[in-house]
Amino acid sequence: MQNETRYGFFVDNVRAVWRAIGAFAILLSMKKSLQPRPVADIAPSAAHAAPRKKRFLRKALSAAAALYLFADLFGKAQFVTCRYEIEDARIQSDVRIAIVSDLHGALYGAGQSEIVDTLETAKPHAVLLLGDLFDQHGNNENTVTLLHALAGRFKCYFILGNHEYKSGETVSIRAAIEAAGIPILDGASAVIRSDETEVRLYGIDDGRGGKAKQLQQIADAAAQRSDDEFSILAIHVPNGVESYLHYGFDLMLAGHTHGGQIVVPGVLNGLYAPGQGFFPKYGGGRYDFGNQTLIISRGLARKPFWLPRICNPPELTLVTLKPRTGE
Ligand SMILES: [Fe+2]
Questions:
Q1: Is 3.90.226.10 the CATH number for 80-323?
Q2: Mean pLDDT of all residues in the chain?
Q3: What is this structure's pTM?
């Protein structure tokens, strides 16, 4: 079991092994091309200039391809747990909320054991399934496995994302979520409790009703919101978040961006995010707006091959609301 969990990525994703073989082959060819050549072969002359340029280009392309393959293979091998804390005077005892987002049918260990084990250690009061756990490319049985594993252990809530709709299987997806006993927050709210503390979670659907339906759901949620209660807005796509600030939600939770795919630590927080384009303003992580906070989970996606995750590993997100100290 231990080995299955530790090496689950290699067992579960045969294509990853093929990528490793491909990368190895490229490295071998690079090694061969770097072998010292006879002096006559490398003597400078106009006749040799063009082949040397070609060789250099071939080496550069091989190196880039190998780097890409290795980054793709190892950058997605394991998820990290990203933790955030928010203090608030209305919180009497810690409220732990886990975000599982953008799984896209990926499998992390037999029976999703890597995700389940991490959450069992974290002991969240609620698990928020923040959209795009299903998608149109299949492997959705892995998502159903996760739903059943989590629903038996934690209080869970599901918010549909764009890929649940893009799949064209929304009816059966909704049925699968409900069959697991997980409520779908489609403009609805739920209370998360920790001892005497209650916080209110409002879930916004990413549905076919488009932006107008979303804005209506947000406005309806805001009308129910009270300043006496810590309020959370959960929405799959963070785009346009600034226009929601005036509604006064204390915390906004989102996913969808996959961390902007490529990160350069300290320099670039994401190269590209859907809907935001290149150099996204909200690539992933924590954003504070005075007393309001936005947290974007970088999500658990590790497919497809042409979308690498470089310095941006898949992420399970844990948010802890804590009693305010000091002042
Ligand atoms: Fe999405």
A1: no
A2: 87
A3: 0.82
